[in-house]
Amino acid sequence: MTVPMQPFDVIVVGKGNAALCAAIAARDATGARVAMLEAAAIDESGGNSRFAGGMMRFVYDSVEDLRLLAEISDEEAKNTDWDTNTQDQYYDDLYRVTSFRTDPRLSEIMITRSLEAMVWLRSLGVRFVPNYRAASAMVAGRRRFFGGMAIEVSGGGPGLVQYLDAAAVKRGIEIFYETRAVSLIYDGERVLGVQAKHGGKPVEYRAPTVILACGGFEANPEWRTRYLGPGWELAKVRGSRFNMGEGLRMALDIGACPYGNWSGRHVTSWERHAPEFGDLAMDHACHRHNYPLSLMINAHGKRFVDEGAEFYGYTYAKYGEEVFKQPEQFAWQVFDAKVIHLLRPEYHGKVATRVTANSLEELAGKMEGVNPEGFLKTVCEFNAAVRKDVPFNPGIKDGLCTVGIEPPKSNWAQPLDTPPFEAYHTTAGITFTFGGLRIDPETAQVLDVNLQPIPGLYTAGEMMGGLFYFNYPLGSGLVSGTVFGRIAGAAAGAAARAASQAMSGTG
Length: 507
Description:
By secondary structure, this protein is an alpha/beta fold. The chain has helices at 17-30, 63-66, 74-79, 87-97, 104-112, 114-123, 132-135, 156-170, 221-228, 246-253, 312-324, 360-366, 372-385, 476-504; strands at 3-4, 10-13, 34-37, 80-81, 128-130, 136-139, 142-145, 151-153, 174-176, 179-186, 191-198, 201-206, 209-212, 236-237, 258-259, 265-271, 295-297, 331-335, 354-357, 421-433, 436-437, 439-440, 445-447, 453-459.
């Protein structure tokens, strides 16, 4: 027997960044009574946002824009090169990494409203701090930011969810945990609510508008194999184990139009022996983002990518896939003493699979699964190909490259010649999937297969298709979730109010 719950104005499925932004926007814009349905228990709630690093890519022209968000002293403002991320730079980055496939209107809305969205988050109590840890370096005695990522959320992804959760609770938004949405209540013309399960029992939530913001299908091995291809059922999942694709299935079941790069995914270099799913207690212990300073070596002892093509924020979401394509789906990142001091803290954490040696020959024997002769030959050829007339500078794309070998290394290409040597065992960690639903960009309302709006249905976050293809610029996912979550919430709230007025004969 299905238990009917009291009716709401807006139901939000999910409880990550996009879902929370949608719920808050709906409540603030119209005073709507909002319910959130979260599949996880409270201690695992927050979706993939809980596993994010907290970096957010938004438009800023100078440090004065950053000071709208974070406390930056006059001395810090003056004595630091803060970089920029202008609208033109943001467009260039997004179009370049997506091979010019990104939806023009979706990308325009995300980019042009990104700073406004960040200021809105700040007004909700979200705290931002300069991203000294991962996006800056000392260059000639002066701190320099790079990659247009000068600000991050204090506390990372968990901090963002905590701030937004507090804002939602303050507004009286009702959150139902351990409540997994099963299907949409649909009368053939409009969405009227959600069928769900709570404690294994069917529950019905009625509302004139529903916002689906419950992530992609990255935690579902059957769907990964179906859409991403053979072998992807074996991938590690960086984030939430609850993102099984139900939201997408529910929408497609009533005729929603699929859109975007359904065989595409955000995949990074990840600890080889990490757990099957993300573990909140491990924080960022499994991240392996310093590969631009390394040689990435496969089982044959060969390099297979240009490690120094760009700062990691522009390649990390696709190079994990390149690792996964290698024999046995692994690689080793190899460093020497010249750069070990530049490695992020997680490299020397307890969960890192690391081997060290005082000679390359010794290291070759310790890297499990690697052909030693192939590795030593690769290093010899690489070292001979490195230019000697360009200085090394990790704070810029320094042009210190190789000549005459394939694949090349375009930046930060120092010879691997100074012991002690360290190597780290990596595989691929899938973060989220790119395929999603087609929406009206102005309202985030879901469109059907005839490209007509489905009354009562909206979406945001990773369920929205058409924005990311093949690759992904670091920090744009959280900003997309905020921008389109706000749009979905305001539009759904307004539609719910109009429906209520129509039923009561007012307005």
